[in-house]
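Example 3.2
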Amino acid sequence: MKKIIKRIGWILALTAIGTIGVPYYFWQQATALPDWYQQRAIAAQGIELNNPRAIEQARQIVADKMAAAQSYSDGTQEIYLTEQDLNALAAVEVDRLANDTRLTEAIRSVNTTIRNGQIKSGAVINLANIPTEALDSTEQNLVATLIKTFPALAQREVYVGIEGTPAVVDGRLQFDHSLRVQVGNLSLSVTDVAQQIGISEATLWQELNRELEALQLREAEISGNQVRLRGVI
């Protein structure tokens, strides 16, 4: 349930494909930061990962939501998640991953929204603070190539996110083929991402869906500004 945010390594990879070799206009678009991050005084904002109080509040939201899940005789549970709940889940999971991989200083803020039947979730990352020794060799090469191509990016914050509709297919939770990857203001298809990274589209889909498929869910539905999930939570 808590793994709705993709692995930090793939966030780095998707950042790279969104910026390498693009014209200046697209460079500007790729490095644009979302309004919710630039205008932090707005009530509906991302969760700052360097704010211990905000993370603790997010953990409490997650705990309260899990405790309120409805249980059924078949061993499954049903839960309704709002934007606030999803945002808290994303922040708690990214905070855990960041601490596990020493990326705490690199990941600034996360934000998750529900719009038009789709979930949009992403993070603002500061590449200058990435401890490359904590990455595997593939991720290190991607970061090195990115910074070599655009040295100024090493001193910038970058937004990377995904937008799509999860659905249960053959008993597995997956993103449908409307999934888009966002780098700044650029929106990229999975096909484009796979071509730029140099791997097969099937492999990339498998990677993007890996954490979702691990969840034992029977039903997933987006209705209005809520997501309904039923399964072994």
